[in-house]
Design goal:
Elements lengths: L6 H10 L12 E2 L2 H11 L6 E5 L5 H9 L2 E6 L5 H7 L6 E5 L7 H9 L4 E6 L5 H10 L4 E9 H8 L9 H9 E9 L4 E2 L6 E8 L10 H13 L5 H6 L8 H10 L13 H11 L1
Parallel strand pairs: 2-3, 2-5, 3-4, 5-6
Antiparallel strand pairs: 1-8, 6-9, 7-9
Helix pairs in contact: 6-8, 9-12
This protein binds S-adenosylmethionine.
């Protein structure tokens, strides 16, 4: 099967199958070989690897993954792409295509059925409308994932990697960095896709930690506290937390916790790092 990753070959496959792009599925197919290599290299795929691909499209990246990995499972929502994938993937024996919505898939069951006890690498050019929920689902469900290498909107990659005191820093940065080390492997312009998206993209690799970055007694409470802190970014941390009903913390409690941590009472949430948020959560829990 001819290499799909070019505008010419992608157009040819699409025309032959009379396929039309579905905007609602975030379909922007990769047509740049250099970028394709960047993703697969950043993921460091080798012969022992089990790979989950989300949204294979016409199989452009799936082919490359199959050439390098032991097994590839690709979950595609659009049933119109299934006959195309049957053709483009016909020469590969280490691939399984599943026609399903990844957001409605029981990930624990899928991993157990397809990969047994092996560690899994997730690789995807993600449909942008589900980037955050799917990345968080993959991280939060404590699945046997060693690494997630994904193409996302550039701005989302920057938010995932941002540190305290920067404009991009927020609840997503802390949530991702609690579970994983982040590395932006490439920035990718719109002309590398068909059709062209309106925004720039980045390839980000999340290396999942064996243990979360900090010790926290109640994860749920810490993330609620983080959400509260960034919900009202302009307020002081004390005001943001006291006004957040779900936390039920009194002003005195928050002020005394900040004093215990050696933090100023007028501090804003956006200046605290993950360690400080976890320490604060542990005191207030
Ligand atoms: N991997 C291909 C490539 O790089 O050319 C296609 C990437 S395209 C950005 C996103 C793909 O995800 C599309 O094939 C789309 O149909 C599929 N998709 C969208 N929503 C999905 C969902 N909820 N579950 C599974 N696949 C989905």
């Amino acid at each position: 099967m001819e290499n799909l990753v070019s505008a010419k070959n992608t157009s040819e496959v699409i025309k032959r199958h009379d396929f039309s792009f579905q905007k609602r599925f975030g379909q922007n197919f990769l047509i740049d070989e250099h970028v394709l290599n960047k993703i697969v290299d950043a993921a460091g795929i080798c012969g022992d690897d089990c790979v989950l691909e989300i949204g294979p499209g016409i199989g452009t990246m799936t082919q490359r993954l199959c050439e390098r990995a032991k097994k590839v499972v690709a979950v595609e929502i659009d049933s119109k792409l299934i006959p195309i994938l049957s053709e483009t993937m016909s020469l590969y024996e280490n691939v399984k295509i599943i026609n399903a919505d990844i957001m409605k898939t029981d990930l624990n069951k899928l991993f157990e059925a397809e990969f047994g006890t092996s560690d899994v690498k997730v690789v995807a050019n993600l449909p942008y409308y589900i980037t955050t929920p799917i990345v968080m689902a993959l991280l939060e469900q404590h699945l046997p994932i060693s690494q997630i290498t994904v193409m996302v909107q550039k701005e989302v990659a920057q938010r995932m990697q941002a540190g305290p005191g920067t404009k991009d820093y927020g609840a997503l940065s802390l949530a991702v960095q609690y579970y994983a080390d982040t590395y932006i492997a490439a920035n990718v312009p719109p002309n590398c896709f068909m059709p062209r998206p309106k925004v720039g993209s980045s390839v980000i690799r999340l290396s999942v930690r064996k243990h979360p970055a900090v010790d926290v007694e109640n994860e749920k409470f810490m993330f609620e506290l983080i959400r509260a802190a960034f919900n009202q970014r302009r307020k002081t941390l004390v005001n943001a937390l006291v006004n957040h009903a779900a936390l039920s913390c009194s002003r005195d409690e928050v002020q005394s916790a900040l004093r215990e941590l050696g933090l100023n009472e007028n501090i804003r949430g956006e200046t605290l790092d993950l360690r400080q948020f976890s320490a604060l959560a542990n005191i207030l829990t």
